[in-house]
Write a structure and sequence with these properties.
The structure holds two protein chains of two kinds.
Chain A: H1 3-59, H2 62-71, E1 86-88
Chain B: H1 2-35, H2 37-48, E1 49-54, E2 61-62, E3 68-80, H3 88-99, H4 103-110, E4 117-123, H5 125-134, E5 139-148, H6 162-165, E6 167-168, E7 174-175, H7 177-181, H8 183-187, E8 191-196, E9 209-212, E10 219-222, H9 226-242, E11 245-254, E12 260-266, H10 285-288, H11 298-307, E13 316-319, E14 323-325, E15 328-330, E16 343-346, H12 347-353, H13 356-366, H14 368-377, H15 407-414, H16 423-435, E17 438-439, E18 445-449, E19 455-457, E20 464-465, H17 469-484, E21 499-519, E22 525-548, E23 555-564, H18 576-590, E24 602-604
Parallel strand pairs in B: 2-10
Antiparallel strand pairs in B: 1-8, 2-3, 3-4, 3-5, 6-7, 8-9, 10-18, 11-12, 11-23, 13-16, 14-15, 17-20, 18-19, 21-22, 22-23
The chains are: A mainly alpha, B alpha+beta.
Amino acid sequence: MTGAGGLLIAIIAAALLALFYLSQSGHVAATGYEINALQSRVADLRADQQQLIYRIAEARSPAVIERAARGRLQLQPLPVESVTFAETRSTEPRTR
Amino acid sequence: MLARTDSRGRALLLLIVATLIAGGVGTRLVWWQVVERDHLATLALRQLARQEEIPAERGEIVDSNGVLLATSIELKSVFATPPTIEDPESVAAQLAPILGLDVDALRDRLDSDDPWVWIRRRVEPAVTDRVAALELRGIGMLPETKRVYPVTGIAPGTTLAAQVLGFVNSEGVGQYGIEASRDGQLSGLPGSVTAQEDVIGRQIADSIRQLSEPVDGSDLALTIDAGLQHLLEATMYDTFRRNAAKGVTGLIMDVDSGAIRALATFPSFDANSYPQFDPELFTNPAVSRQYEPGSVMKAFTIAAALDAGAITTRDTFKDDNNLRLAGARIQNADRYQYPYGHGKLTAGEVLQLSNNVGAARIGLALGRQGLYEAFRRFGFGSPTGVDISGEAAGVVWNPDGPNGSGDLTAAQNAFGQGLSVTAMQLAAGYAAIGNGGTLVTPHVVAGWTTPDGTYHPIEQPPGERIMRAETATTVLELLTSAIDDGIAQAASVPGYSIAGKTGTAQIAGPVTERVRVGTDADGRAVYEKVTRHRYIDGWIDSSFIGLMPASDPKLVTLILIHRPATWGLYQMAERPDALFRRLAPQVLDYLAIPPDRPQQPVAAE
């Protein structure tokens, strides 16, 4: 192989390497934007999840439950006098 | 030949010029690339890269059963860039109704010279969705974290245990309550990241460099039980309205550990929208308000005298409704029914009748320094150490000190006047009577969970013994008889033994009076308006403290009604002892504490 031929191959190889580098850089950048978009989506979903947790905790508030029980379900608290505690005569487990 | 020579000369000249130019460019390149490299790289980074703080997630607060009381959510805040808005009138007209803003005020903001303005911060997702759908030029949204308190209170416009929890301000700093006292633990440490950005501000993926990881805050577990808190709040809010009171405080504490199971105060607020409320509501009166306690102190006077061996339960003390000390006269609350007193009373009868003269004589039998030292030992005049911010110490004057009046101070202190305490101190003191004589530290934080999921229970310091166990047992029996046979029978609870004491004290405040200061030249009286600090008719603090069940106390419950408009010991719409009778069965039932005086036990296998 002549000197000029070697030089040409070297130039072509360098050009291919440069193209490869550029394509990889572009690919990395594009993937980066995809990651950003996915991270943004994760953040949105996480915010939605937080909202749902908040709404559940709000709905479980004793005051909310009491209002619903008294209003919508027409329930009344059990009179305290009607509560009786059972006295256990034996602590032994029952056997069949 | 000559032409060839000329050509060589020109070529040489060109070569020299080209070499000089190349040398100059090369030298300059070396200068920029090598010598000035770091400086230029820094300048370039400043233009392209941004260092951003990665906020740490603030820890959650849960109750003793894991019920979520405080958490953080991400909401979007709406902003505008006024210079890019072409028609502020139209944009304001579209945005204002969605965001609940005044159209004219919003148009003025959009029409301003400011490059960037907030329109409304931390908006509900449903609202931001509607804003986004408008696709208005010059209007944008940024995510921001908001601290939220999901559990609704029983009173309209309140959240559960608002004064216990406190809140977090718009800068993310805990204010009042647990949010303030445990701010460092809850908030964690922010991290930081640097990244280069493209022309529209997006981070370039391979340029992101994390400088430090954020350390999220710890989750806190409280001793508060949301169910019990609700019961207490419902009862206290009811009496707050019925008595048209200035304020009410209710507290339920475990006598053995000092764990506060419920702490309710009214008026209260909604921690989710705290800026709309008077900042005076943010402090917790159970720890910050000092007041004259009245007769609930008689139990401590008797405990101090019994513990020192100055009296026995068989000793009697003369009650003639007339104890004169240093020019002052001490009388009983029932002076109109019993103008000459009750005769000779034992310590138990002093508690049953809530007798001032008898309590004063017991205090004097112990001695003024002995009573002062005992009260200080019982925790009065010092903060309890409760983990709620803003605790006051109360005031107990040394009878022989510059603010003391000798025996008069001791006699007044013996029945709860002339000193000031906090509700928390009283509850801790009664807890000591209930647990055998140990002063425990009241607390609302049970432990914390670090981000790695490890739970760390808080070890409370061992309580200090402030009276002998026998003394505590004796005083507990006397307090039980005060309910069974005394004037506070309204506090008795069917099926349960209760030990407790009522207390009512007038409140001092500034009073403007017309005072004669002399006579004028014609001999006519001259009057001036003078403002004095004295007890005000109609201003009272009425309280009850109960230990239940008295046979083996588990809980101490304090109820305090501050300045009921339906004034008077007998005219109040609902007195604290009667309120206790309404509250206690619900609490005992909720915690499944069986009756210790069962009336009709149901036999079961």
